[in-house]
Amino acid sequence: MPSTIPYDPSLVLGNIVPQAKLDNVLKIAQLQAPADAAESSMNSLVTLKRSIDMTIQEMIDMGIDVTDLVNESQEINQTVQKAAVDYGKAKIAAEKAIQPLKALVTGVDAEVESPIDYNKSAIKTLPISADTMQMSVQYFSFDQNSQSSESHASSVSAFVSDSLNIFGDSYSGSATSSVQSQVNSQVSNHSIAGTLVICITATHKNAQVFAPFIMDVDKAVRAWNAIYPDNMIKTNDIASIAKIEAQQETKEDKSFSILSGATYGSSFVGMVHVLNTTETSSSQSMESVAASIQGSFSVGGWFASETGGFGVDSSFSDSAKSLLSTQNITSHCSVVTMGIIPSIKSNQVKIGVQSFANFDPASDMDSLAKLQGATATEQNSVASSADKAMTGAQLQTMQTAKITGVLSGLAPIDDGANKIIDTNSMMTAMDDYIQKCIEGGQNLGVPINYYLKPITQSMIARAWLAKYYPNKWNQAGAADDSKSAATN
């Protein structure tokens, strides 16, 4: 997975900066730098390779000798290969070193209240940075479809024919043909694998800073005493506070930092892998089918022959071609965004169970010959003509059913839809992310550069004296607005 912007949720604009957490974020960024540089170098070489290959093709079309350029292209191949190996090694090494540091980042944290007077301070947005974007997209798609069919009708033709001899050769042949078309074993396997990896990093021009920055001296004293319990500011001892104020710009003057401003960036890293495997199989035991349908065939065949039809009722066909069909859809999606939350939309995946119709031409010709033989007579009569007309109707019905079956050979008999996150979802999220980057706004991005404002002990002491003893200690203010600090 490509790198994301290191970020700790405790580093909030205006809050006291936990130095250990800031150091942890900076260390993660330092460990990511070699891998990011190796990836950038590899991508640049890949772009160069593709550009040279396109130039070679253009020169070939113009009839220009490209021998030397081809040699250069082959040398670039080795360079790209080395760059890819270097990137892989750097990425693995970085991830191994970063994982323990990421474990230190907690989603929930508790810190001392910021000494900022939010009622008097203000956050100002300044376009002092720059809008940039780097994007890398890799997509892999694989589609495979395999089908196989094995006919088992020959193993039951004799059995069915013998079982229905009572109705004569014509009805026995009709039954055999119908069973043949229904007991074929069909297997279909359709697999679609698609993998999409997107990596986008962006910087945003708008920076945010506290201007003016006004400090609430009472909150500052409480924050200092919580952070430095061994070096507390005692508000009941004016002399000690005056002594602290006199330590300004000395080694004894300790401090803590406020996150008073930041420039922002954002990142989008997503991966989705979808595997769709559909297997449809129909396989019936010939003896079981023949034994179970003998009674139905006897009655259905008699009724169909008397009405000039062919075969049996469609309800029998539906029960005879029972299908076993399964569809397995696996979707693995991973999205990490920093600074912008894009829209994630699920998509519907269609579920289809397929029915198959497969006909054996040889068996059809055998059935036709048996039907013609059954109606052949030495002398024509009204009865024989009626039998021939009935046979013609049966043949016509058989051909119509055959054409219909072939055209609907892969007809969905079950349909449904489930919602999953797939490549379309990822592309929608990417479009929304880019659109939000273009639109900009104040609430956009995570800090990539931190502006730290040190709050020293002497600064707090000076502000406290200016607030409670303005006539005796008429010092300058301790914040951006000296008048506000002096009259606070």
Q: What do the pLDDT scores average to? A: 74
Helix percentage: 40-55%
Overall number of structural domains: 1
The tally of strands reads 8
Task: Give the H and E element order.
Answer: HHEEHHEHHEHHEEHHEHEHH
Q: Segments where pLDDT lies below 50 for 5+ residues?
A: 182-186, 283-287, 320-324, 353-359, 406-415, 482-488
Structural class: alpha+beta
Strand content: 25-35%
Outline type: elongated
- Radius of gyration, in angstroms, nearest whole number: 41 Å
Count of alpha and pi helical runs: 13
Describe the structure.
- This protein is of the alpha+beta class and 488 residues long.
- It has one domain (1-18, 109-488).
- 47% of the residues lie in helices and 25% in strands.
- The longest helix has 43 residues, at 19-61.
- The chain is elongated, with a radius of gyration of 41 Å.
- It starts with 18 loop residues before the first helix and ends with a helix.
